[in-house]
Design a protein that fits this description.
The chain has 13 helices and 17 strands. It is of the alpha/beta class. It folds into 2 domains: 298 residues, Acetylglutamate kinase-like (Carbamate kinase), CATH 3.40.1160.10; 150 residues, VC0802-like (2-Layer Sandwich). It binds adenosine-5'-diphosphate (ADP), aspartic acid (ASP) and magnesium ion.
Length: 467
Amino acid sequence: MILKFGGTSMGNAQSISQVADIVENVGPCVVVVSATSGTTDQLIKLAKTAYEGGDWESIFEELVDKHEKIVEELCSGAHGAQQFDNLKKVVQGISMIMELSDSALDRVLTFGERISSTILAALLRKRGLKSEAIDAYNLVFTDNNFGEGNVDFDKTDSAVVDKLGALLGDGIIPIVTGFVAQAENGHYITLGRGGSDYTGAILASALNAKELQIWTDVDGIYNADPRLVPDAHVLPQLSFQEAGELAYFGAKVLHPKTIKPAIEKNIPVRILNTFNPEATGTLITNEEENSLKSATYRKGISIINVCSAGMLEARGFLAKLFEVFARNEIAVDVVSTSEVSVSLTVDNGSAAKVVPELEKFASVEVQTGMAIVCLVGGGIRSSTDVLGRLFSSLADHNVSMVSQGASKRNITFLVEENQAQDVVKKVFDTFFRDQNESPIDKPGDASINRPHGQTGRRIANSLTPKL
Ligand code: ADP
Ligand code: ASP
Ligand code: MG
């Protein structure tokens, strides 16, 4: 069993001791931890302040104080002093040469998890358990894509089996740094923000774990972000594909890459609450019930409208267009085409990289500050009126690029970013309020197994230019 604890779970002495209670109860397992709550953000600030020649020392001291307090309360003596000395050296280096490469930033960020794992392992030892902090630098291997390393699964799997297998054999509970990995050039690298979930899945897959448990600060996956919609309710079960769609389109509770290794090995993923461990949570498996599940949104999206005068005749135009995105390694989330134009969505930061190239053979317009809203559920497949109800509930909003995923388990559309939260609330009101049962629940129509279904990015197969 793999247990992953997020930042809030590792937030302070009290919550870390709740984490230790849970681990103690579970027995032999592998634990993956995030940095303590807010630490990764503080480390980013630390590195950037050092680079800009600002007062990084006071940020550093805050970080040391925060962790010293936790250590004093939980396991005094188990000091992370050596790690903080090393962090200080790295940051001094950045400040001195006034350079902050992606690689140096990643190195700084890894200290969050390297410190938190040391604290939890020391606490477990204090409670009489055999436990060791393990730096995933020696377990997870990637390319040199700093900021979001791409995992080399062959190399990783054999290191995980060797190293963690040996510890487990000796009855030791490994406390592994989430988010951290080793780049091809031997430097520290990270797996992208929120990447500790992914570390959990990578280890679960390598070890063929019975279950991956993601312990967080909410009771499971809800039918809308419970912070946005307080009436939302927990979903007891989701399919891998539904969870993948939700994660990809913004539900922060799960990192989007987490699901793939779980699908490949068919490892159930359970979302649980560290602060309410009795709750049954959400179980994610390859079974899919025929119902609507949840609505989510992702901000920071740009629409690129591309129009070629000669498009009607120009065979190969689309190929040429997509080649530009592929070469620049830019993910396109939603695509819609008409006879004379193509609209594509990308993350805000990516548009500038491709527009100059696209302008060489087409006229291009960019709309920034958009959000993708996504309604997810296997039930979309069998429903005839979801689109109709969606359209009428959003009549007052400017909605574009409505599309249904090829898997027919999601409907996505674009709205202006500042309207996204209101729109999600309306979608919730339309499909999920006043019901504990989902609207297209058909008894006896459950369990459609699609272990290798498509999640995330896809090309729209139905288009509605404007509502
Ligand atoms: P952790 O630090 O444990 O990794 P995250 O902050 O990354 O936790 O993810 C948990 C948060 O995800 C919740 O506090 C919640 O606000 C947010 N969230 C967004 N959408 C959903 C959803 N559909 N269900 C549950 N939580 C959601
Ligand atoms: N600590 C990292 C972050 O804040 C990774 C994680 O928490 O999953 O992004
Ligand atoms: Mg998270």
